[in-house]
Design brief:
The chain has one helix and five strands. It is mainly beta and about 80 residues long. The longest helix has 8 residues, at about 30-40.
């Protein structure tokens, strides 16, 4: 099991408001796919994984137009 810094961002879709909710935690995770999918059980949820050159893993989540992003950086 690896330890990650997890940054979860929820993008605000209200016009004129460019802020977003940001949650940061450290967690031991063995399966990143299962971790993200366990947090979003909605049938309309779609997931896209992006592996960056520096080892960071980013998941883009779309739930009926509500965009969220999870960024995992290994500690």
């Amino acid at each position: 099991m690896k330890e990650y810094e997890v940054v979860h961002e929820i993008f605000n879709q209200c016009s004129g408001n460019q802020m977003r909710d940001v949650f940061i935690e450290e967690a031991e995770i063995s399966d990143l796919d299962a971790y993200v999918k366990s947090r979003h059980t909605e049938k309309s949820a779609s997931f896209e994984r992006e592996d960056l050159a520096d080892g960071t893993i980013v998941y883009h989540v779309d739930i009926a137009g509500l965009l969220q992003r999870y960024t995992f950086t290994e500690l």
